[in-house]
Amino acid sequence: MRSKKPSASLQSVTMFTRLREDIDCILQRDPAARSRWEVLTCYPGVHSLWMHRIAQACWSRDLYWLGRFISHISRFLTGIEIHPGAQIGRFVFMDHGMGIVIGETAVVGEGSTIYQGVTLGGTSTIKGAKRHPTLGRNVIVGAGAKVLGGFTVGDRARIGSNAVVVKEVPAGATAVGNPARILHKETDAQREEAANAMGFSAYGITQEGDDPLTKALHGLIDHATAQQREIERLITVLERNGISMDDVSDQAPKVDAARLNRLVDD
């Protein structure tokens, strides 16, 4: 028995339902959005999603040139380039959007947030291969990040601003730096606390704009320097009271904080 195609009225209901979802998604997640009319008329991320759905519909019907042409027009109007072959889930929010590039075999999971300047790109030139990344559900990709390759970024993962990610990111983990380092929620909890609680913002940066690992290392160097000063003070007090500490003071290692901090920054 042949399945019935959805009627035109049902398709229009589905279309308008998706439009309402897109608008409500932005109203919930962007404090700058004041009204549905503002989102409808002034948010290029929404416009690019709508045009992408048309382009993808053409692409899935083997109308490749038409799909690419619609994608090209969308890029000209919005500054966002989404290949018509890419798969974009529901409730995806592309904030600001300018400079976003999403490749042909990329998949963006439901509820994900992508900021300006992000590239979901490929590193392979083999046609038909999975060349672009797959983002899970509720992934945040910070401004300027580059995610390159046919791997998976797990659900609820976060990618910091300007990170360059070339390998899989586990679910719930955070990737920062170039090349990106993976910070796991469980195993790196103490490190993040020592680094002044990473404070991941929507743009994937820390409270001070630093890599949390770098902050942790600087904190350890400062702590070692403070301990050295305290030891030197105790030695001075003991020698003042007639207790010789020559052997201890000669053998005690010295912390060169300036040199260590330069090594960390480099």
Supply the number of helical segments: 8
Order of adjacent strands in the largest pleated sheet:
3-6-9-12-14-15
Roughly what percent helix? Answer: 40-55%
Biggest beta sheet summary? 6 strands, mixed
Task: Describe this entry's structure for a reader.
The model is unreliable at 186-201 (pLDDT under 50). The chain is elongated, with a radius of gyration of 26 Å. The protein has helices at 8-29, 36-42, 44-60, 64-78, 189-194, 212-240, 246-251, 257-265, and strands at 81-82, 87-88, 93-94, 101-102, 107-108, 113-114, 119-121, 134-135, 140-141, 146-148, 152-153, 158-159, 164-165, 174-176, 181-183. Helix 3 runs antiparallel to helix 4 (64-78) and helix 6 (212-240) runs antiparallel to helix 8. It is 42% helix and 13% strand. With 266 residues, the protein is of the alpha/beta class. The chain starts with 7 loop residues before the first helix and ends with a helix. The strands form three sheets. The chain has a six-stranded mixed beta sheet with strand order 3-6-9-12-14-15. The longest helix has 29 residues, at 212-240.
Could you provide a short overview of the structure?
The chain has 266 residues and is α/β, with parallel strands linked by helices. It has eight helices and 15 strands.
